[in-house]
């Protein structure tokens, strides 16, 4: 297939200005803190103050991605926002972003929904738009942005989080994305939010099972009839959607079991290729569509040009897709690290009373 070369030209991240350690939530809920830290693998929950939402996070991330890119706003021909934190059933979140950025004219602007998979779908559509030539020399702005809140005392409460990752799709300066990817979907009610409900409903165990099945199907398709050990050895890192860090570990161990590996060998794969990619996710919590891309942004840091990584996207409902990326020349210096450093340094901690007050606002709004 002859395609117009395209990939990720710039990345910007935006994390919220508040956070709470999960140990503080454990005290509030009278739960052993080890359940949240060791059992789920979480450290902090990133939280938005009243008034901030997925749109403000998306705008912040987009401005940062644009600030370190050489083009101008007139070069953007597509803006797509993947989210499950929509503000409106009709008006796309991309309209709020476009308004703030002063982006209008010959631009295709829309929102993509498929639970946590929406950001990856937006990215794939933008890449396919470029590869096909339909972009006619323009670039795309793709944003994955979400605020993940569960009802108070829900088992998912310690996995809450928020954040946005914006990517400019043009020259593959940050990363090249392979045109061939490995999707898998199967309808299920593992996690859903009926129209009008403020918080999602989750069948936690089913979502774990669906996620693990999707991992084995997608990696099975990548490996095909080749030797699994040599295929996986090619990748420097393996990134995953991160509902909570322990879920990723469970999925990797399950993949190892499925491949007939010993538990030790699967654990080694996790430690060598996955654990480090979760560093920022542990401090942010689940940012739904943005979670995988936070992990990818972390995994790309310092990579030599041409180094391959995988990115596994999962969205409840459910749909998944495994992507193959290779680091571009900008990965070595990774200027987006300053977004994360700045946001983590400046964010304010909430204690349990502050959290209760904030959740009171969330309930009322
Ligand atoms: N010390 C250490 N570990 C502890 C512990 C303690 N005191 N108490 C419990 N744990 C461990 C459990 O053994 C379990 O680990 P394991 O699964 O490896 O055995 C883990 O902590 C979680 O405990 P569990 O009782 O299963 O938790 P829960 O019923 O409260 O629910 C989730 C946990 C993950 C299912 C819940 O957080 C959830 O529904 N999350 C949302 C899932 C999601 O996001 N899905 C959609 C996208 S994929």
Explain what you see:
The chain is α/β, with parallel strands linked by helices and 365 residues long. It is 39% helix and 22% strand. The chain folds into two domains: 7-174 and 335-350, Thiolase/Chalcone synthase (Peroxisomal Thiolase, Chain A, domain 1, 3-Layer(aba) Sandwich); 182-327, Thiolase/Chalcone synthase (Peroxisomal Thiolase, Chain A, domain 1). It has helices at residues 22-28, 33-39, 54-67, 93-101, 118-132, 204-223, 228-233, 245-258, 263-273, 279-284, 291-300, 337-346, 352-364; strands spanning 7-14, 18-21, 44-47, 76-82, 108-112, 139-148, 161-170, 175-177, 182-185, 191-192, 201-202, 237-240, 308-315, 319-327, 348-349. Helix 1 (22-28) runs antiparallel to helix 2 (33-39), helix 3 (54-67) packs across helix 4 and helix 6 (204-223) crosses helix 8 (245-258). The chain is globular and about 55 Å long. The termini are far apart.
